[in-house]
Design a protein that fits this description.
The complex is a heterodimer of chains A (787) and B (264). Chain A has 787 residues and is of the alpha+beta class. Chain A has 19 helices and 28 strands. Chain B has a five-stranded antiparallel β-sheet with strand order 4-5-10-6-7. A four-stranded antiparallel β-sheet of chain B has the order 11-12-13-14, sandwiched between helices. Chain B has a three-stranded parallel β-sheet with strand order 1-3-2, covered by helices on one side. Classes of the chains: A alpha+beta (787), B alpha+beta (264).
Chain lengths: 787, 264
């Protein structure tokens, strides 16, 4: 194994440019003649637009153009789409209301796009926006998912009860029968709090139009530039794909929020042509990110778990209301359905599961995929109710889980998924050992001496990532396939460029993907370049989200490398005058069996391009191969996390005292990067559990947590040093044996933390985020009872 | 952000004169509150009079008092060896303000003139019974802090220094807002050399205030247990999404005990 091959802790190649300020993000790019766009946003949660007068604003200094929904309609610019069709259980299609790029007749949340002002400077654009006169008639609003179906506010005409769909999964009758026969039923009501994504780099776009070639270019902060191009071309109808180039350069974090095709980037590229081709740059201010990036979570759930007399789980019933916000965002509909209901079996052999989900419109920012996307919500339901059941049955939570673990694979769950590999008991054993679970009572007693309440909580999560295969997701309503592409270009000197349809925005692909190439071709990692994020360079790709780029993107590269190796062997055989079958390739050298003939990889590459030593009628010159990979199944990372918290009874402050994570990601390319992903994910989950909560004011519909003054991101002093462990059951459905690791931490940790908090306090539930005030309030009746 | 005229006078007299001429002027010291609010369009002064040109910073410590000139940054207060010896609670308080960037720019004069309900310095001033020196006069802290973001300062009056008496013992305990990390409740307790006790609370109400019941209890016995059963009326306290008035009232009790425990 080389020092830069698979399994090595190779330092990230991209970090030098990032930490020395040499990254090139969208906002770093400036084009000649560039103008600046500013969005006038709705101050109301729900209102009719009576009129918009832009006449005074258009006369302001520097203004190049002001556009409203009327201009969008006149140009027949298509609306924003939701790319996953969900059918209700009665068979009717989901009720997707119109989602114009700029509001037409009505605004549906605070921050909704009312007008787009373009001027020579950002300040001029802002000043002109202030001079746009909009007359609103305020309508009743609702910001609460639980109230949506009975609210006075009607967000979209197509959905009179604000219900987008009423979806179900599983066998209701069989599940009801299991509950009738149950020895014990555990019930829980849970709220999965709304979160605001906070990528370090805010969203940004530069749209430009070249009238000479009738060609558009869009620089944008996207996790999937090809999908953006496809949607802008096919659905907005702005330009055919060959007339539109989308570039997603360095992107500073996404967490899902940069998957979606938003109004802002479409407006920039559309309006550039309207102002004669001058480029338009828009960079979100942080407060715009709070208002108008797609939010995450926002579920209200009732769940019930049936167990038999021996403590075996016999059934699970889940009913969820999932907020969609004012419009359906790009993939909003699949999050509380096929990324949620399908995970309800967790790590357990549950024979009967029934899930019903009402997706509802609310007068809030749209909700869509956010790190984990449906799977954190599912894990929260399963792991909270399993822990609660164990407490009710007076069983150890670890042993209750062990008793119900799936023990043989493949395992078909009642909710679509077929788990391919895993060893859940091994992960539990390792986590118990690392966490020193046996020592917990001693630590609890020690905490009590200091007046602190200590609790322990488990989360045995499973996630399904690398969504696939394309035909299967298509049958479930997906508008796209979920394969990935790769092209490996070997240069004549033996250096390699890999063009990938994956997109790196923090994941470290430039390093891990290069490790794979270094490993396979036996070349130095510095001789490998990873090219991504430009539709003019990479032919097509599906981008990076859902922890897919290792299992799917790298497998595509691996397949292309197989072809490179096969072709190179033929070239080497011709040059060394041997049979291709006798050529072997190892550690970067081609040898001929039974001889001392050998050629280095670089020599073969050169021979392939010089093309003197073989018959070009039999072997084409050059060394370049491509592959598309469509997986045969999801991959199923799983693990056991154990959290210990200590609560200050005087103030309600919860400290995460220790956190253990044992994960099974199959084979790991770069343990250092994977550990970083786990750390980041856990911190995000601790954020959801203890600090982060998006709050809209019920009375006014205004976003109360509109800045870091009130929206509490977790900080270094909110988290402990993590204790990590790994087990490995290689994934059988890809040749690298890899599973996804990007979301696991965020999926597992909220349940682990909240199980620990409820254990410490001895209560059934504490709402997230369990801020000091929330915990203190929960403790008040307990204190009264004690007095 | 709106445009404004910028002045950087070199003397207090010039600063006062510039303010008198301005239509809607604002003094700026570290600019830690003014600049963000101007940038966000929440404040639009006609004139900004930058006081850093006064070069009015420095600390002097005598046996009975500590005088901090108005332009002294938080980091200079936090790291001053003389203060650390005679009022370590003041060093600790200064070190707990904001983050390093704020502590390097923000000044004591700016902080108390702004009188943010969640600022730390007002608690130290009121808790120690400081004297505020201005361009015109000397004011007791109790007269100086008059309400939310308001002080006894006249429109063209500048704080020049804060004079703290050296106490027998003092302590500060802060419960930070989880998001902003401003004081959600901050309690400064001091036992002065004449035996009197002062308790000042910031973050919890519209402005910094004293708690006479706690002062009386601590004057009898300067210990945390002396505060048992002493409660604060929640009616006058702030409520927001992070803390209800009831919770704040409770935290005042907890933080007061902790301030007494760390007092030295």
């Amino acid at each position: 194994m080389s020092e830069t091959g698979i399994g090595q802790r190779v330092k990230r190649k991209e970090d030098h440019r990032f930490i020395t300020g040499k990254g090139r993000y969208t906002d770093d790019i400036n084009l000649p003649g560039q103008t600046y766009g500013y969005f006038l946003r709705s101050p109301h949660a729900h209102a009719t637009i009576k009129s918009i007068d832009t006449s005074a604003a258009k006369k302001m200094p520097g203004v190049a153009g002001i556009f409203t929904g009327e201009d969008i309609a006149n140009d027949k610019l298509g609306g924003l789409i939701c790319g996953w069709m969900i059918h209700s259980k009665d068979g009717s299609p989901m009720k997707a209301g119109p989602h114009p790029v700029l509001a037409q007749g009505k605004v549906r949340y605070v921050g909704d796009h009312v007008a787009f002002v373009v001027a020579a400077t950002k300040e001029q654009a802002k000043a002109a926006a202030a001079a746009v006169d909009v007359s609103y008639a305020v309508l009743p609003h609702n910001v609460d998912a639980a109230m949506a179906m009975t609210a006075k506010a009607q967000v979209h005409d197509v959905a009179p009860d604000n219900r987008v769909f009423n979806w179900s999964l599983g066998d209701q009758a069989a599940t009801d029968a299991a509950f009738k026969a149950a020895a014990h039923v555990t019930k829980i009501d849970l709220v999965n709090n709304r979160l605001i994504p906070n990528a370090m780099e805010p969203r940004a776009a530069i749209g430009s139009y070249d009238s000479g070639s009738d060609h558009f270019t869009l620089y944008t902060t996207s996790q999937n530039p090809h999908v953006a191009r496809l949607v802008i071309s096919a659905f907005h109808g702005l330009a055919p794909e060959h007339k539109l180039r989308v570039i997603a350069p360095d992107v500073g974090g996404g967490f899902g929020s940069k998957i979606f095709i938003y109004a802002e980037e479409v407006a920039c590229v559309w309006a550039s042509k309207k102002i004669g081709g001058r480029p338009i740059k828009w960079t979100a201010e942080r407060s715009e990110s709070f208002l108008a990036d797609a939010h995450g979570r926002d579920h209200v759930t009732h769940a019930e778990l049936a167990t038999d007399a021996t403590g075996k789980i016999t059934g699970l019933r889940v009913n969820t209301k999932a907020a969609m916000g004012g419009y359906l965002s790009t993939f909003a509909s699949c999050v509380p359905t096929y990324l949620y209901g399908t995970l309800m079996s967790g790590q357990y052999a549950i024979p009967n599961i029934y899930v019903e989900v009402d997706a509802v419109y609310t007068n809030t920012a749209p909700v869509d995929a956010y790190r984990g996307a449906g799977r954190p919500e599912a894990t929260y339901v399963v792991e909270r109710i399993v822990e609660t059941a164990a407490r009710e049955l007076k069983m150890d939570p670890g042993e209750f889980r062990r008793k119900n673990f799936i023990k043989s694979f493949p395992h078909q769950t009642p909710v679509i998924m077929c788990y391919d590999a895993g060893d859940y008991a091994a992960a539990l054993d390792k986590a118990l050992q690392i966490a020193d679970y046996k020592g917990f009572p001693g630590r609890k007693a020690e905490s009590a001496k200091r007046g602190k309440l200590r609790g322990v909580g488990f989360s045995a999560y499973i996630e399904a990532c690398g969504i696939a295969p394309s035909a299967a997701v298509g049958s479930l309503g997906a508008g796209v396939g979920l394969w990935e592409s790769a092209e490996v270009r070997v240069n004549p000197v033996g250096t390699v460029e890999v063009l990938t349809g994956s997109h790196s925005h923090g994941q470290g692909h430039e390093t891990t993907f290069a490790q794979l190439v270094s490993d396979r071709l036996g070349i130095d990692i510095d001789n490998v370049a990873i090219v991504h994020g430009d539709t003019d360079k990479v032919q097509f790709g599906m981008g990076t989200y859902g922890s897919r780029s290792g299992a799917v993107g790298m497998t595509a590269i691996s397949k292309a490398l197989d072809k490179i190796e096969a072709k190179a062997k033929r070239v080497a055989a011709a040059v060394m005058e041997a049979s291709t079958n006798d050529v072997e390739f190892k550690n970067g050298t081609f040898t001929v069996k039974g001889t001392d003939k050998k050629m280095a990889f670089g020599e073969v590459a050169l021979a392939a391009y010089v093309a003197h030593k073989f018959n070009s009628a039999e072997i084409e010159p050059g060394l370049k191969e491509s592959a598309f990979h469509d997986p045969s199944n999801f991959v199923f990372p799983a693990g056991v996390h154990i959290c210990e918290v200590e609560i200050d009874a005087d103030t309600g402050v919860t400290e995460v005292a220790s956190y253990t994570a044992v994960d099974d990601f199959g084979n790991i390319i770069n343990p250092m990067i994977v550990e970083g992903q786990v750390h980041g994910g856990i911190v995000q989950g601790i954020g959801q559990a203890l600090t982060e909560g998006c709050v809209y004011d019920k009375e006014s519909g205004q976003l109360l947590t509109g800045s870091y003054m009130d929206y509490c991101m977790p900080r270094a002093d909110n988290v402990p040093s993590f204790k990590l462990g790994f087990i490995c059951t290689p994934c059988p459905s890809n040749p690298l044996g890899m599973k996804g690791c990007g979301e696991a931490g965020a999926i597992a940790s909220p349940a682990a933390v909240m199980n620990a908090v409820t254990d410490a306090l001895g209560v059934r539930d504490v709402p997230m985020p369990a801020t000091p005030q929330v915990v203190w309030q929960v403790m008040q009746p307990m204190k009264k009872a004690a007095e | 952000m709106e445009n404004f005229a910028y002045h950087r006078p070199a003397s207090v007299a010039d600063a006062v004169a510039a303010m008198k001429k301005a239509k809607d002027g604002k003094f700026m010291s570290g600019g830690m509150t003014l600049l963000p609010t101007v940038k966000q369009g929440l404040a639009a002064p006609s004139d900004v009079i930058d006081l850093t040109g006064l070069k009015n910073s420095g600390i002097s410590v005598s046996g009975s008092s500590v005088t901090v000139k108005a332009g002294t940054t938080h980091v200079d207060v936090a790291t001053d060896k003389g203060i650390r010896q005679v009022v370590p609670a003041l060093s600790a308080l200064a070190l707990s303000i904001g983050d390093p960037a704020v502590r390097n720019r923000g000044t004591i004069g700016g902080s108390i003139s702004n009188n943010d309900p969640a600022a730390d310095y007002p608690a130290a001033c009121l808790g120690l019974g400081a004297t505020i020196h201005t361009s015109d006069r000397k004011l007791a802290a109790g007269e100086f802090f008059t309400g939310m973001f308001t002080t006894a300062l006249k429109p063209a009056e500048v704080v020049t220094a804060v004079e703290f008496p050296v106490p027998a013992k003092a302590g500060y305990a802060k419960f930070p807002n989880p998001a902003s990390r401003y004081a959600m409740v901050g309690v400064f307790v001091a036992k002065l050399k004449d035996g009197s006790v002062r308790v000042a609370v910031t973050g919890a109400g519209p402005a910094v205030f004293r708690v006479p019941a706690m002062e009386a209890a601590l004057a009898r016995d300067f210990s945390a247990k002396a505060l048992a059963g002493v409660t604060v009326d929640a009616k006058t306290l702030n409520t927001d999404m992070h803390a209800s008035a009831t919770y704040r009232a409770h935290l005042i009790g907890v933080m007061a005990k902790r301030a007494v425990e760390v007092a030295k």
